Amino acid sequence: MAHILVTGGAGYIGSHACKALKQAGFTPVVYDNLVTGWKDAVKFGPFEQGDLTDRARLDQVFAKYQPVAVMHFAALSQVGEAMSQPGRYWANNVGGSLTLIEASVAAGCLDFVFSSTCATYGEHDNVVLDEDTPQLPLNAYGASKRAVEDILKGFEAAYGLRSVVFRYFNVAGADPEAEVGEFHRPETHLVPLVLDAVAGKRDALTIFGTDYDTPDGTCIRDYVHVCDLVDAHVLGLKWLQDDKGSRVFNLGTGTGFSVREVMDQSRRVTNREVPFTIGERRAGDCTKLVSGSTRAEQELGWKPSRSTLDTMIRDAWGWHQTGHYES
Ligand code: UFG
């Protein structure tokens, strides 16, 4: 079976991608430094511990497995941290990605799937966000991802590296079989935090601002189920293997939900109240981020099937109750 090098395969999205790749007949080789990932999340193929910035280690792994493609998930991804420690984002997300891309080209592995983000768009009030929307990131996280998109374009022109770039909206949910799921330390994402509050693992959820210009005053995001998201990656890989050329795709459903709507749905799913307090706005948060593109559906044949708020929270709750990683 063909090997796919999956950087960040011990993390939330990468681990789900490994499961989807295995189901699609590939062998995912996880390359992860375990700084934010979990060894226990590596269940679907071999594991190689290493850092993105370690070129010699990368060369070894490319030589050992001769992967036919790379799926590059590994990144620092907290907007708040990116505001306070931007250098880490440039060094790891840009420097590390450049090292990986150079190693991939040197190994003759020229199909590359990259996790980018809607955070590359920045704040565009009342603008429908599609792939042609100008990218004006507000923080070093978004800027680092946009920079890697630029590197990929340059490497295509120079070396024929083909890439599929996915700009994610808000990823949520978990494997319905709860083999893998979302687990960050510290946790910063809304759905697991709401479920922690519901389960009494934290006192309360703090709503970051209720004075936004939205119907209920809280921020609106476009939530997409992690299993749907990784299905798109498998389709993206096939797109590259069919030699259709480099392409950028938004991955969102086009429907936005406010923080309060996520809390209400969590109450319905769990049958428990969500304890909460109201706090200040969080630096770097945009009012509303919703995808306005159907390119992935039209061109890749992507059909999200689990991305209703109900299913995402139900699956996240299933994982929350049974799943956790220790190492
Ligand atoms: N929120 C709260 N309280 C919390 C945590 C979050 O009210 O304790 C709110 C946020 O203000 C935001 C929404 O819930 O309005 C979602 O917040 P997340 O932290 O779950 O997600 P973000 O929208 O901030 O970030 C996500 C990804 C980033 C990506 C970004 C693009 O985590 O990697 O989407 O906007 F860059």
TrEMBL record:
Enzyme class per UniProt: isomerase
Gene3D superfamilies recorded: NAD(P)-binding Rossmann-like Domain, UDP-galactose 4-epimerase, domain 1
Subunit structure: Homodimer.
SUPFAM superfamilies xrefs: NAD(P)-binding Rossmann-fold domains
Domain of life: Bacteria
Pfam families referenced in this protein's UniProt entry, alphabetically: Epimerase
Cofactor(s) this protein requires: NAD(+)
The protein's name in its UniProt record: UDP-glucose 4-epimerase
Biochemical pathway: Carbohydrate metabolism; galactose metabolism
NCBIfam families: galE
